[in-house]
Amino acid sequence: MIRNIINIVKKETLDTLRDKRTIIIMVLVPVLVFPVIFIVSSRVQMSVAEREQVRTLRIGFVSEDANSPLAEFLQAQERVELVPMDDAANLEQLIRSDSLQFGLYVPAGFEYAIANIQPANLRLYFSGTRIQGTGRIDRLLEAYETMIVEQRLAAKDLQRSFVKPFEKESVNIATGQEMIGKLAGGFLPYLFIIFCFTGAMYPAIDLFTGEKERRTMETLLTAPVSRIEILTGKMVVVALTGLSSAILAILGLFVGLQISAGLPDFIMSVVMGILTFSFVAYLLLMLIPLTIFFAGLLIPLTIYAKTFKEAQSIVTPLTFLVIFPAAIAMMPGLEYNALTALIPVVNITLATKEIIAGTIHFPHYLITVGSLVGLAAISVVFCASWFGRESNILR
Fold first, then answer.
1. Is the pLDDT of residue 4 over 60?
2. Which residue in 270, 69, 110 sits closest to 178, CA to CA?
3. Is 51 within the bounds of a domain?
4. Residue from 329, 313, 299 nearest 191 by CA
């Protein structure tokens, strides 16, 4: 029996590797998509940041006061072009046309209020769709505000501590690994869950619906092997392609992070330190039953479908059923406990976050693995029952 299953696995693996769509989905997309995304995004971000640093900031300036020390302060700054204007009504149109980046409106009595230590208002016009340069204008206004405070303190012969009586020292007890695991660790399981499912989807369609469409299923059933051996061999191939796609996606992510520029050193050290034997072992113990479970979902549907197109239309909506719980598990505040450890897909996302953070609770992890193994076993039994019906196979 084992020899028959091995022969079927070899035969179906060769057939799968001949399918260009499977190779693209299983190998090329997971391996290349993240390095390309990281390279392009990092280059674009660096280019935008560099351009923004050397770009001259054009600020429309409308003042109801005759003399404005604020205007003198802004004109003295580097890479700042102040555009005096008479009417604030024109600021909005000029900002929308990108002739100006910002607009400042100084109402009448602003300088008098500043000089007499009274409350004063300043209106800043900007477009929320263009966030570049916002930090620069904020820093300029904060610098002007700081200068006024310093002048007031000097006039009253007071120290800076008069307006800032204490300094706050924040102590973050979470390590860098815990921060990455808790805050960003949900993205990694979301990644391999999606690729695990899509990596198994096309081989499942080809090995079952494709056999029916090519009319080779009947020939295969006449071979001197049992139906359970045929199903087992095909299911092994489907599960292996899904598992391989998930692993390649993770490797592609790490390669993309390694070759991308601009990430802090401590983040890179934590990310690269995650690739340990224990992390891989934890991950595989969840991924193996997960891929079997996905295969158990996909195979009955692909057996039911008559054509490749029909199988795609039936299977594709399942992707959203996989994405939804993975996305829910990324929401803040959802804790990994005995209850969430039982929920499929959600439990893997939460468990992976804890593994990355180094705070995994082993009993909860065992519950997760046990629930996944149970679901995988149920899916295998259902597949065997479904594949054993003549009406389903020859539909």
1. yes
2. 270
3. no
4. 329
